[in-house]
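for the writeup, i need someone to sanity check this before i put it in the appendix. the sequnce is what the collaborator sent (i think, or maybe the updated version? ugh). structure was predicted straight from it, no edits. if anything looks off just tell me and ill rerun, i have time this weekend
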Amino acid sequence: MRLSKQQKAMLESIRRLQPVSASRLGAGKSSARTFKSLVDKGLIVESGKGMLGSNYRVAGKPDAPTMKLKPCPYCGGVDQYHDEVLIDGDYEYFLCCRGCCCEGPTADSKKSAEMLWNSRV
């Protein structure tokens, strides 16, 4: 499947921000067409409802936590996933809630991020 530069850029933005609302990716006819084309190709899928409408994520199985996690402290949701961010050349890991998109504290490993989520630090 061939993707345009605009489609590749939007797909990478969604991968970094997931889950993300369509409105957060930018307004305009060009962005809307690109977004719809990625949905039509099955490369991004709806992952639930947020405050700004439907949230989307890159298709495929997200990185699921390995230990039993407490519900989200804000919305009570029980569906969390791992995400990562590059800070000063090192990856930091954290958990995100699919229900309200809140993020837990960052840690140097996925297991540590899960422990921090459960300890509510």
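The chain has a mean pLDDT of 75. Residues 5-17 form the longest helix (13 residues).
thx in advance!!
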